[in-house]
Amino acid sequence: MTTTQLAPFPWSEVWGQDAAVETLRHAASDPAALSHAWLITGPPGSGRSTLAHAFAAALVAEHPGDEAVMRQVLAGTHPDVTALRTDKVIITIAEARALVERSYFAPSAGRYRVIVVEDADRMVERTSNVLLKALEEPPEQTVWVLCAPSEADLLPTIRSRVRALRLREPEVDDVARLITLRTGVDDATAEQAARHAQRHIGMAQRLATDDAARRRRDDTLRAVLGVRGVGTAVEVAGQIIQAATDDAKALTAERDAAERAALLRTVGVADGQAVPPALRSQISALEDDQRKRATRSLRDGIDRVLTDLQSLYRDVVMLQFGRDGELINRELRAELDAVAAAWPIERTLIALDAIAGTRESLERNVAPLLATESLLVTISSGRTP
Known about the structure:
Blueprint: H1 18-29, E1 37-41, H2 48-60, H3 67-74, E2 81-84, H4 93-103, E3 113-117, H5 125-136, E4 142-148, H6 156-159, E5 163-166, H7 172-183, H8 187-196, H9 201-209, H10 211-225, H11 230-266, H12 280-320, H13 333-342, H14 345-363, H15 368-381
Parallel strand pairs: 1-4, 1-5, 2-3, 3-4
Helix pairs in contact: 1-2, 2-3, 4-5, 7-8, 7-9, 8-9, 9-10, 10-11, 10-12, 11-12, 11-15, 12-13, 12-14, 14-15
């Protein structure tokens, strides 16, 4: 069993990152070991944000046993911790400037003021430059904690001003045990979810508890394996985008409605009452933020599909090299064997390259449907466009 289960609060929710936990626990307790700017990197689902907030809680608390203060930090209500997590495509300059301004305030109740940026990889160059001086010369009692998938996702000027801490990927068995503990699902379901999610804890939990998500993943992979030409490529691409769109709407619709209702209550507009002209700009700003969040949610949904497709053709490569003990999609073994036998390795590598290229296209704002159609045509033909 993963030893981090036994770590004291607030580290108890951090799984499979013993070395990182020990480094940050030591830094939080020994000022000589504390850097004033940190970068926590690791693959999606490795626990970057969980570790960052545990570190913030340990930094703010006056002593290790001060659980009340730590729980306040983890609940997002402590005045000395500012956290930014964006649901939009990018972090804006205005948001970065607000963080910098906040970073120069002295702590009001705890030992340190902590600024956590959970999605630091979503800063463009101009936004990153806003943070540079604050990272290079922060006030003595301010600690910055940035999170990103890898160091390469940030500018070299940012990387040179932080202490980097790389997380390891948890093992499938570790994630499965955690999912069973959290959700109560049986061991087989938890193992399959952890494997299909490629050890991403959040996605594994969703797959383990959502029958529709499991069916959608299986249907998508089988549909892609059945693509035989341009006609079916276009049809399946449309199905993938529609499913991702529906999923994004389901995830954001309830939150959008709640935000709009809360804003109207704040400004004194009753349910069903027309919005006064003077307040329409606020409603428009909220709707603009919600559209940006919906765009990000759709992109994230498509990226999850691309991750699943990557695992599919990764399995094919493994079989072509005679390694069948580490398959992610074991439930599709017959179909994988058929593709591995029919394709040369070069064609499988073209498919994997095309998936990576599609990710880059989506980051450049290429229309998702066109990018997905192009990907499936390339996979079905075995030829680069």
